[in-house]
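Anyone able to model this chain together with S-adenosylmethionine?
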Amino acid sequence: MKLRESGMPEESYWETLFDVELILDRLETDGRLRDVVELGCGYGTFTLPVAQRISGTLRTFDIAADMVERTVRQAAAEKVENIVCEQRDVFSQGFGIAPDSQDACLLFNILHCEEPLRLLNEAARVVHPTGFVHVIHWRYDLATPRGPSMDIRPRPEQIVEWAKQAGLLVASPVLDLPPWHYGIRFHRPAMSAR
Ligand SMILES: C[S@@+](CC[C@H](N)C(=O)[O-])C[C@H]1O[C@@H](n2cnc3c(N)ncnc32)[C@H](O)[C@@H]1O
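re: yes, here you go
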């Protein structure tokens, strides 16, 4: 089942809506992260830059065949070899990732879906006990040029509440990701014991 309001505009327009390097810097996405999983590669806007920063493999999937094909083609063109990208419906098939196996799980522009808690539970399951879940979403307090309808668009405090229900703890303040997004890093409770 395709998540509600998860269609994409033209790629060239979509990619003007983010400062990808700033977002990844503020989310502390770097070589300290080894294996990472991303839900919904879309055009690969974040997939390739994340893969180029981490020290392991980026696993990513999308329900849309054209998004998967585009991301695979782009990775090959740019000779980024640490990406595994496959077509997958995460709602009917799950992530297909072993529990406790990933350093981070990325949920970018996706938690306005019908069952956000289910995605956060799956994210919490696949990251290892010292792993992170990184979320970004559209701001809700200004007239953004895109983004899901305001009645289904989650506020940061809503995402924090869902994440707590999934057994995750807040690992960052709400991060400003201009021009149109905010982000939050979460971690599994085992981090607190370190
Ligand atoms: C709004 S886009 C975000 C893409 C990317 N994360 C980004 O921020 O650029 C949401 C993506 O999720 C994909 N998607 C929707 N439902 C899905 C499902 N059930 N399983 C996997 N991917 C899905 C869509 O095809 C779309 O590419």
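Residues 1-3, 6, 8, 40, 42, 45-46, 61-64, 67, 88-91, 108-110 surround S-adenosylmethionine (CB under 6 Å).
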